[in-house]
Amino acid sequence: xxxxxxxxxxxxxxxxxxxxxxxxxxxxxxxxxxxxxxxxxxxxxxxxxxxxxxxxxxxxxxxxxxxxxxxx
Length: 72
Hints:
Elements: H1 4-14, E1 20-22, H2 31-44, E2 47-49, H3 51-57, E3 60-62, E4 69-71
Parallel strand pairs: 1-2
Antiparallel strand pairs: 3-4
Helix pairs in contact: 1-2
């Protein structure tokens, strides 16, 4: 069973978008399905990264609770 994230990734990629999937921001019904969806999205050309890696890509991120700015 493919996830909504998989379907959206597939559609965006077919339209020519560069797709980045943050793998720990969605889930599937079972870990095996999750792993297959991630593998298939990577095979279609999506970049698969974690939230931590995504935050490293951002020059400035505001923390919600404290308003503290993180510098990278």
